[in-house]
Amino acid sequence: MSPESQDKNGRHKARMQSRKKVVDEAVSKALEERGIVVLYTGDGKGKTTAAMGTVTRALGYGYSTVVTQFIKGTWECGEKNLLMSAAHPLQWHQMGTDFTWETQDFDADKAAAIALWEKAREALRNKEVYLVVLDELTYALNYRWLDKEAVLQAITQRPREQTVIITGRGAKQYLKDIADTVSEMRAEKHAFNSGIAARRGIEW
Amino acid sequence: MSPESQDKNGRHKARMQSRKKVVDEAVSKALEERGIVVLYTGDGKGKTTAAMGTVTRALGYGYSTVVTQFIKGTWECGEKNLLMSAAHPLQWHQMGTDFTWETQDFDADKAAAIALWEKAREALRNKEVYLVVLDELTYALNYRWLDKEAVLQAITQRPREQTVIITGRGAKQYLKDIADTVSEMRAEKHAFNSGIAARRGIEW
């Protein structure tokens, strides 16, 4: 080994030892075992997609999962095709309307959201369910389709082992307050704004 | 319908019509059909998970997908369990080392990264591959395991229909420059920092 390479290895080793110490210390303190609330918000790409990645992950261990989608009613999506086609312990509920700006009917949208919320609330009471996804829930709350207090209560009083993922732009502080993990997806750039069409298998 | 409800419906309808106009205009301008480069960076949760959600999505349409993971060598993960267990058109390559702060050996890590990059470069030349994931590529670049210019060239000269997803903290400007979509996952809160253990089926 050249002296230069030895030197580089030495620096790398010191940096990695210091990194390992930080990681080991954090791991030794992170001992509480329970389900969490994850909130993905912000205007960037990746919120629903990250939720769907987690669904795939949970199902990979055979954990029972319930997906509820509060906006994307009748859209086709690849992950649903794949995950529903095999015998996974997965339920998938949608609002059964189109995007709300297509329907433009507040009462119909609200009724569909409330019906969907009943499915979500049922999952949030069920100890057998490991993961509940409340996709685009922020819209249903911000449009006041759902009763905020009832939603917060159902989430915070869920079974201890259950994890909940909430997605959507414009999450209010009350959602951040009940979440254990909050990631804000910030859009630095979006292909759509450069005139590139949304793509099958990538965007939906 | 009560007057109050009519009024609310009227306001909602006006808001949704305006929203529909904005969306329709954007859709009418987004006509370019090609694969894109998506970059997920930042310190928050959701980067790899969003990439895995997209893999599930692409495979849901039967699109050929290649995943390369530049750090997470020997970890078990639920999505790999699930997606590799069925006959999907999916290749999954890992560095075959442990986290780099566990090994603390620069030359061994670099050799493993270069070997993995060869797999990635092969995929980036293959017109049959619809989606290539370069998970945690930023580390391999920031540690200078890989030649930056060779990586940028392989990505920008890929087949026109191919989409590439790059993940990892600390993406430099040269990666943002070649990306069509950049989302920065900003950690507002992380359960791990509140002493909650990483959870099977959720974190890995």
Report on the structure:
2 copies of one chain form a homodimer. With 204 residues, chain A is α/β, with parallel strands linked by helices. Chain A folds into 2 domains: 1-31; 34-188, P-loop containing nucleotide triphosphate hydrolases (Rossmann fold, 3-Layer(aba) Sandwich). The first copy, chain A, has helices spanning 3-29, 47-60, 78-85, 100-103, 106-124, 137-142, 148-156, 173-178, and strands spanning 37-41, 65-69, 90-94, 131-135, 163-167, 181-189. The first copy, chain A, has a 6-stranded parallel beta sheet, sandwiched between helices. Chain A starts with a helix and ends in a 15-residue tail after the last strand. The model of chain A has no long low-confidence stretch (mean pLDDT 88). Chains A and B meet through helix 1, helix 2, helix 3, helix 4 and strand 6 of A and helix 1, helix 2, helix 3, helix 4 and strand 6 of B.
- The number of distinct helices of chain A, counting runs of at least 4 residues, comes to 8
Can you give the mean pLDDT of chain A? 88
Examine the secondary-structure arrangement and name the CATH architecture of the largest domain in chain A.
3-Layer(aba) Sandwich
Largest sheet entry of chain A:
6 strands, parallel
- The total beta strand count of chain A reads 6
The general outline of chain A is globular
Oligomer: homodimer
Radius of gyration of chain A: 21 Å
Brief characterization of the structure:
Chains A, B: This is Corrinoid adenosyltransferase. The structure is a homodimer of 204-residue chains. Chain A has 8 helices and 6 strands.
